[in-house]
Write a structure and sequence with these properties.
Strand order of the largest sheet: 1-2
Helix content: 55-70%
Structural class: mainly alpha
Distance between the termini: 32 Å
Number of helices: 11
Shape: globular
């Protein structure tokens, strides 16, 4: 599931360099069919299909299916498929299996999830810039141009060699500057901050501690955090 999702996201990004190429038009229905079958299977096994249907990520899946199987109806929304990767990694079963089968993931789960959140945020913001400006702005012709503008704006570098055109473009730039910068900084901090472990303090219930903590920082209770002797 995760492999297919990453492949689809990679296809959405790479195909931006070859807009209108015959091979991209041929692959759209293939990916759309795979996503549709997965979507139908999840609805089939769901205890409450209607509740599943109205979940935000499932609505995003439906938009992507339409965009891939009927491009004229909404090809600009195909980038929402990147949200699927985040949902798969956050599902309880997937996390349980990754913890059990992949030691690297078990030891660095918080960092990996934080990196994934940051990547999804960057891809979504970049895709919004790309889809609203391609064909209208000569300075943005592919995802690299959109990513360059997005990162330079989010990091407040703002070189100024690429600007968004039109009223909607300027409004999008304002939204990125107001909301995006704070979210970007917060997500970046979760990647680079010292790792924490999940362990509930038996006295006060604080659930996040340093990996080598002996006492709870909140109440001073002695902790017995299990580890595997790894440094």
């Amino acid at each position: 599931m995760l492999g297919v999702d990453l492949l689809v996201v990679g296809f959405v990004v790479v195909s931006s360099f070859f807009r209108g190429a015959p091979w991209t038009d041929a692959l759209d229905p293939l990916f759309g069919t795979i996503i549709l079958l997965d979507f139908v299977a999840r609805l089939w096994i769901a205890r409450r299909p209607l509740r599943q249907l109205i979940r935000p990520l499932n609505i995003a899946d439906m938009i992507v299916i339409v965009s891939l199987l009927a491009p004229a109806a909404g090809e600009n929304f195909a980038f929402l498929r990147v949200l699927r990767v985040l949902r798969v990694l956050r599902s309880y079963r997937t996390l349980t299996r990754l913890r059990r089968d992949v030691p690297l993931f078990r030891q660095n789960q918080d960092v990996i999830v934080s990196v994934l959140n940051l990547a999804v945020f960057l891809l979504i913001t970049t895709a919004l810039v790309f889809e609203t400006q391609v064909g209208r702005n000569d300075e943005i012709t592919d995802y690299v141009d959109a990513l360059y503008f997005t990162v330079s704006t989010l990091t407040t570098t703002g070189f100024g060699d690429i600007t968004l055109q039109g009223t909607y473009g300027r409004l999008l730039a304002v939204l990125i500057m107001i909301f995006g910068v704070s979210l970007f900084i917060r997500l970046a901090q979760t990647v680079f901050r010292p790792p924490k472990v999940s362990y509930s303090c038996p006295h006060c219930g604080l659930s996040r501690h340093d990996a080598d903590a002996v006492h709870c920082k909140h109440c001073g209770e002695i902790l017995n955090i299990p580890d595997e002797g790894l440094t």
